[in-house]
Write a structure and sequence with these properties.
186 residues; mainly alpha; TIM Barrel; 2 domains; 38% helix
Length: 186
């Protein structure tokens, strides 16, 4: 991306977009790239999945990636500096693959030991998860790679995950499920 785009006045840039261009930004040409608007110099932005290694731009025929220990193992060190360094390392790998957004970290609560994707999350403890996610995000951002924290609140089971209803109290929502997102997002 050019420095001129990064320094652009975003509200002014948005005001110059046609309605068709604005709508095009809601979709994308594929899973891993945003739509570009050449007329205004808005580049396509590449993202990659990979909480423990930058996968690249394919689900199956991807370029080789480093494979770090899973988030649960990393959080078990209780070492935010280590997690920050993991973020820095992954940011450098993302840049090698021309990605400026990493779909990570995973910040769900490990509410069941049977969760098929629990290993992607830091912990069952909201505070520890928030501390680790904050360190991870700061590591990515220190190298100008954006973090996309996932899989947002109460999306922490695989079976019927797109159709399941999460029933919980407001207190549980705030104290357990939203808590880990507070540090990295704000």
């Amino acid at each position: 991306m050019s420095h001129s785009f990064l320094d652009a006045n975003i509200p002014e840039l948005i005001s110059k977009l046609t309605i068709e261009e604005k709508i095009s930004l809601l979709g994308a040409p594929n899973w891993w790239n945003t739509t570009r608007v050449e007329r205004l110099g808005i580049p396509s932005v590449r993202m990659s999945d990979g909480p423990n290694g930058v996968r690249g731009s394919s689900h199956f025929a991807s370029t080789p990636a480093q494979c770090l220990p899973c988030a649960t193992s990393l959080a078990s060190t209780f070492d935010p500096e280590l997690i920050h360094n993991v973020g820095v390392f992954l940011a450098e790998e993302a840049k090698l693959k021309s990605s400026v957004i990493l779909l990570a970290p995973t910040c769900n609560m490990q509410r069941s030991p049977l969760g098929g994707r629990a290993f992607e999350s830091f912990s069952e403890d909201p505070h520890l998860s928030g501390v680790m996610a904050s360190a991870y995000v700061k590591g990515l951002q220190s190298k100008n790679v954006a973090a996309t924290i996932k899989h947002f609140v109460c999306n922490d089971q695989e079976h019927e995950r797109t159709a399941a209803e999460s029933v919980l109290s407001e207190r549980a929502l705030r104290e357990i499920y939203l808590y880990p997102y507070d540090g990295p997002v704000i």
